[in-house]
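subagent[fold] <- orchestrator: predict structure for attached chain, return tokens only, no commentary.
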Amino acid sequence: MREEFRYPGRGAPIPALLAALILLPMGAAAQAPEEQGRRLFEVHCARCHGLDGAGGEGPGLRRENLRRATDAETLREIVDRGIPGTDMPPASSLNTQEIGAVSDYVLSLGVVARVELPGDPAAGRELYEAAACSACHLVNGEGIAFGPDLSDIGLLRGPAYLREAIEAPEAAVLPRHRTVRIVEAGGAEVMGMRVNEDTFSIQILTPAGEHRSYRRSNVREVELLPAESLMMSYAGQFDEGELDDLVAWLASLRGRDDAMTGEPE
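subagent[fold] -> orchestrator:
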């Protein structure tokens, strides 16, 4: 039998579930959008941006100023439409209210205090230089642009992702940095990082810094190696303290002119 509820002094019964909704405390209702935003973020966004928004495959969001989202309305548009030419897809499965809830939750991440990391950023910079990382990476214009530009990597990626990229780079390769093996018509093999490709051609960047373009009809084989990285693993090369130092320095790189000083904000 359906449970019913009557307002005092009135005779018309209403279903108990509807009564519970009517009598829901205003405080609980006010908290619902924030909780909804968090849950939607965990389902749709956390895989790339991290459960806590600290960053992973996607940029970290725990900062006051987002590079592309200068205000709340712009952020909603980005969530809704994505960012063409990047790995950020449109939120095609979310309605307008859900997009607003996710966007508000992302904005709330910007007021979360930054976590203090173990390690000495200045010592991390010395390790970076000693390991000749600039032979593949740029920091504020210094180095070679074969691997990802690290000038603002502290804004774009979280500490856990940075550490994984150092110890197991093959596990942290983004789609736009995937390794390609090409067998030329004469049989020579060339390894490089995929820059662009279409139905008829593919362009790669070799470890020597050479940009090469191949027509698919003129090569024997093109193989994408998603589980491989041209970067060597430094697992076992550095001890735990040195890894902490290097991660602390990379996390301090936030696109400012003084990033090379190794001083955190």
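orchestrator: received. Logging for downstream: DSSP finds nine helices and nine strands in the chain. The chain has three domains: 34-109, 121-172+232-261, 179-225.
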